[in-house]
Amino acid sequence: MRVILTTGLFMLAACGVPEAQAPDDQAPSEETPQAPEQVEGLTEPAVTMTADPPPPYTYWAPEGTEVRNHPSNPNVWIAFGEGRNAIYYFGDACRAAAKQAWIGRARSDLPAPPTGAEWRVFETGQSVLQDLQLDRLNIEIDPQTQQVVSVSCG
Questions:
Q1: In the predicted model, is pLDDT for residue 142 greater than 80?
Q2: Is the full-model pTM beyond 0.85?
Q3: E strands, 81-146, where?
Q4: Of 61, 88, 108, 140, whose CB is crowded by the most CB atoms within 10 A?
């Protein structure tokens, strides 16, 4: 099983279980979240948006997918595409949207994590714990090129 952390998103893509939920002790709030600070220059993939409310960002959704709300929590979004695993998006608590410019940069060029921040840096194909921590920044590195291939929360 491989965790897929594609342009922005990842969130449990390898599970392939479209109805999976976050553990109760870490479930995102069903209250209406405050609008995130907008980030200029994010790639907007061509997706079909049927989610209401829509996610704050779509950089995590692969081209050609349909973005819907989770059936039991409107503040969790799922990108569905024929022939692919569902990709979940739990928001931007770790501020991954503001760090999308890191994609393509060398691992050695990454800044040090700020004091108190939790970052998980791992290489594609490396086993990672499937726990969900919405404020943790996940940085996936290509093992061959040592370049950042995705930045996401979880």
A1: yes
A2: no
A3: 87-89, 119-123, 137-141
A4: 61
